[in-house]
Sequence to fold (741 residues):
Amino acid sequence: MAISSVARVGAMAALTALALTACSTGGTDAPGASGGDCAPSDGPVTLTFTSWLPGVEEAVAIWNEENPDIQVEVQTGPNGNGGTYQNFFNQLEAGNAPDLGQIEFDAMPNFRVQDGLENIAACEGILEAESQFVDWTWSQVTFGEEDAVYAIPQDTGPMAMFYRADLFEAAGIAVPTTWEEYEAAARQIREEGGYINNFSQSDINAFAGLVWQAGGEWFSNDADGWTVDMTVGESAQVAEYWQRMIEDDLVAKYPPWTDEWNAAYNSGELWTWVSAVWGANTIASGAPDTAGNWAVAPMPQWEAGASAAGNWGGSTTAVLKGSDHPYEAAQFALWLNTDADALTAMNRTANIYPATIEGADLPVFDEGVEFYGGQKIYEVFAEAGDNVDPDFTWGPTMTQVYNDVADGFSGVLAGNGTLLDALAAGQESTIAALEAASIPVKE
Amino acid sequence: MARDTAGRPSRAVRHRAALAVFLVPFGALFTLFYVIPIGYAVYQSLLTVEREGTFGPAVQVFGGLTQYIAVFQNELFWNSIGRVLLFGVVQVPIMLGLALILALLLDSPLVRGSRFFRLAFFAPYAVPSVIAAIMWGFLYSPNLSPFTGVTQAVDFLSADAVLWSIANVVTWVYVGYNMLIIYSALLAIPQELYEAARLDGAGQLRIALSIKIPLVVPALVLTGIFSIIGTLQLLAEPQVFQSFTSAVTSTFTPNLTIYSTASVPNISLAAAMSVVLALATFVLSFTVLKLTQRRTAR
Fold:
């Protein structure tokens, strides 16, 4: 017995060592294209594409029909911060990531820092495509560098205000155009028994969109490293504004994206939602009983007469590190996000608003939307899109930032501290997370 | 295991070959699904990342115990361990107490229809814990619950109450399972003991207190240790509850903390946390085992 058990342990140890060496060497080599070379593959290829866009299969089916030699298989998953990014990071670590993945603008620096993106600048037609895209979206995928393209922009999330036109009219309350009027309206709506809005404790990217609109910025970087500034200037201004709304009970506190939250919109308790263009789909599916009663207006402004807009969300299609077919993957990504049929299909199923300049002129964006009383809502978003500050930088660990600030915000709603305290705590943990990853931080 | 005589080596060899045949399936699976992943986690936990410049590529280098130092300095991680320990101190005794009472009732000759009740009590365990959490999440919801009269008066999903709301879900799911283990221990008690007790004039209550409970202590210890392990590893229920309430933070339980650390992604720190959690679980289970063994030995 002694001999055989020693032999067994020995065999296990050998196997473990083998597995460990295999894993440790697996991480260091980087197959696929670098910036300097991007050649077509021989013969037919099959690409895998992970996305959480509802109905993206329809657009992909158009491509598959036209390109029998480059077939794309769609894998769907939860939204990025909800799990797909973590899957991507795990797959990248294991070396079996899909060829293509949906990545939001705010997560691009995270994937860049983790070396998860192929630079497809050398692939045919990619650099030339720059002129087709809205300026700020292109700078988000190139990080402002020459000869670098890390993804193809897909859609943007210009923000506006969805509001219950019928309720505002019946109560004789003017639709607010400034944040000051918004607060005044909130007090009147409270007397009617409703809430003007819900304060979302977990949509920190929406809060960032409000800061973006106000002209603030949480992150900046240069060659020497990153700066984190979440508690000063416009960020503090926005935090203090919503802090007052929370303290005066002018906003509801439903956890967002829950059935309770949908029910509050469906029942007419909530009167507005300051959200992105794709939110049109969220309300329509979450509050079906209110069809026809909604309208869209530009975001309330900090200065009367201004027209600043924020952005919430917006995705890219990235070629992930280790893809065997970066050329074909890049061609598909470019087609998916520039082809009129593909963009129309994705708008129909997911209300996406394209990142291309021409995309905004597609017939579908000129139509009135029944759910919004026949209003041509995309005109409002098109104007908002033009008024989004193009220089907004995301940090390299946004999933962590969102988690930590959301934990702080939900503490605020439970009565602990203020939004500004939560942002300060978030800033502290963000700097700690960056330092843990050896990402240079400037104090 | 040496060869018994020089003339009959084949029997020992055959014996050893048979041993190998029986051990290989276990050994292979054990290696593949326990030894290698644990070894890989330990290996990962010893690494740290270095890079140069704002977007410099990351290089993993050996970092010794750097990640473990970070784990011990991580307040949120220890808060989450404290939270599940508090959870366990309250929930495990309640659950096992209930399981014991139900098992004793089923075993009592005075209760009719014990077969039906045995199945009924066990049925919640057949519900996957994710589904159970979703169901209870709706039951707790202030506006969607069928019992809005109660849920609008008491907020089961508030920051103060949500831990105990989750404890209730866990109890609901596992009480039947634990009851079944205790019940089968009760069935193994020889009938002679009961006869002797009855001859001495003991009633059902006396039998339960003086014979049944002392004899099922090993089963209670076993279920207790399983419950401690389960408590420290709470993940599914709190994660599901995140979609009902924001009171469940991303660092609510140790496993959620590890999950959100891995999504940063900071895999080495998450690996170190996992190793520390595994060791803490082991130490706690072992301590409970030792303490109870000493008590029963006396």
